[in-house]
Amino acid sequence: MTMPRPPGPMMPYRVFRDFLPGDAHRALLEWTLANEARFQAAPLTGGVINTDVRRAMVMRKLGPSGPALEARIAALVPSWIEALRVTPFAVSEIELELAAHNDGAHFVRHIDTYATGVQARGDRMLSAVYYFHGEPKAFSGGALRLHRIGAAEGDTSGADIAPEQNSLVVFPSWGPHEVLPVSCPSGAFADSRFAVNCWVYRRRAVS
Length: 207
What we know:
Number of strands: 14
CATH class: Mainly Beta
Distance between the termini: 45 Å
Helix content: 10-25%
Strand order of the largest sheet: 1-11-7-14-5-4-2
Number of domains: 1
Order of helices and strands: EHEEEHEEEEEEEEEE
Mean pLDDT: 91
Structural class: alpha+beta
Shape: globular
CATH topology: Jelly Rolls
Number of helices: 2
Radius of gyration: 17 Å
Largest sheet: 7 strands, antiparallel
Low-confidence stretches: none
């Protein structure tokens, strides 16, 4: 009988708490709540909507908070490259996406890198997620599960990162991960699990 292959090592990641100053954190939350009507169903690659795979509401604007958050991330990228032992690269772009996860929201296991041959603006090298929410917290669940390298489907031996207030987690974009289901009994937008998804790119070589 063939024995299942044991999962590999845990992918590298880092968690940073109190990531933004208090006033910046509050400003982002206030702007997000004021712009509820601008959120749309989260698409997959190619613009396809499939809520069995990914259920969330997103937008690509962060208002006045966007430039400041992007600048803080850009300043930290060199230290992230070193800490995560990622191949050094020159940053060509930082992409941000604001997401709201309400009752039943989730994202099945996936990786953030683009497939070879897909028309893309570059190669995603680092992925980061910044978490924030209203107080008191009115949702549960929604952890980011980082899977072990080479783990089989259904293997849950990775790391579950809770979406803690004003925290950020960063990991290599090639790492398999998923968003576990969110429970938000009220269904109110203001009670959602909010996140800023961030992807750090290197320029894709032209063949």
